[in-house]
Amino acid sequence: MLSDAEYRAAVEFVYREARLADEARYAEWLALWTDDGVYWVPATTDPGADPDKHISHIYDNRGRIETRIKLLQTGYRYSQEPASLMRRLVSNIEAAPADNGELVVESNFVLAELAIQAKREMHWWVGRTTHRLRRVGGELRMCRKKVVLVNAAEPLPNLSFLI
To answer: Taking a C-beta distance cutoff of 8 angstroms, is the pair 77, 115 a contact?
Structure first.
């Protein structure tokens, strides 16, 4: 069981991570990651999915996460030029300690994305996120982020932003 202070820290981390992604504050978002971070969006809702055996929409290690951010920052990610306007609602946050001292924080989300690049379409992204957090220098950092979309196995619009 987590202390109240540790639970609040985990909740605040999840809210801050969502806000930074929504506001395209990429350098600050990247600073939330550990050096061995993994960002995974499986193409299935199967809870037993394995990224080494199942197809993924995104399966990035820290180097690929940095490349993704650089592309978003430079404007060479034409599918996000100009950047989509986004806001997400995060709810049902549950946090528990893992056996290795990390925190496992799960939450539901609804993300509204106004894709203004071409057709000015509103996209809705809904799912469950699992953050694995670890203390580095006393600060919480993400070592893993898994996003399971409700429609993960369906054809999806462009996922070139931070979900």
So the answer is: no
pLDDT, tens digit, for every residue of 61-99?
Answer: 999 999 988 887 776 555 556 677 889 999 999 999 999
d(CA 35, CA 54): 24
Please tell me the pTM assigned to this model: 0.91
CB 124 within 8 A of CB 110: yes
Residues 61-80 as b/e (b if ≥16 CB within 10 A, e otherwise) read ebeebeebbebbeeeebeeb
Non-local (6+) Cβ contacts of 93 within 8 A are 10, 11, 14, 105, 106, 107
DSSP 62-90: HHHHHHHHHHHHHT--GGGSSPPEEEEEE
For CA atoms 149, 152, 158, 162, give the dihedral sign.
Answer: positive
Q: Which helix (H) or strand (E) holds 58?
A: strand 56-61
- Residues in the chain, how many? 163
Going 26 to 28 to 29 to 32, the CA torsion angle's sign is positive
Q: Looking up tokens 């950047």, which residue turns up?
A: 83
